[in-house]
Amino acid sequence: MKKILLPIVALLILSVMLITPAKAKTKEPYSSYIERTLIDHGKQWVSEDGILHIRDSYWAGTETGSLGTSKFEDWLSMNIDLATGEGTFNGKWRLTFEGRGTFSGTATGKISQGYLITGMFIGTHATGEFEGFQKKGSLNGMLTDPTHSILYAEGTVCYP
Fold this sequence. Notes:
This protein has one helix at 2-19; strands spanning 26-40, 43-46, 51-65, 68-81, 87-97, 101-112, 116-126, 134-145, 148-159. By secondary structure, it is mostly beta strands. It has a single domain, classed as AOC barrel-like, CATH 2.40.350.10.
């Protein structure tokens, strides 16, 4: 009897574990304001067709938003048509919240008229009190001069 009862109990426990629904993530609105300055121009060249190529430029500044205030860092690559000011960008970003943890991810988007910025971001890597968090959304802003920009980001934060 014990030989039959033990496997049945084990199967029942396993069945309950498989049927129990996973805890749903909580989603909340997210918004922030970012000011950043160009620190390192990265590698730059202009191709024969008039496209400015920038690789691994480094920007740093602050982000103030739904999660608090953090140091903002961004490593960007861009391709911009010098005749039209139209182009694209992609990069990686990191937020460092003093004594609280970090949040990092990627962003992609477009540059219009040489100074308007629109795009999307997603953050899936976090440490400290943000571990397990994710955030995604849209961003828009502008270059206020060749070495400074402001951005507005909005979307959602998913809490584990």
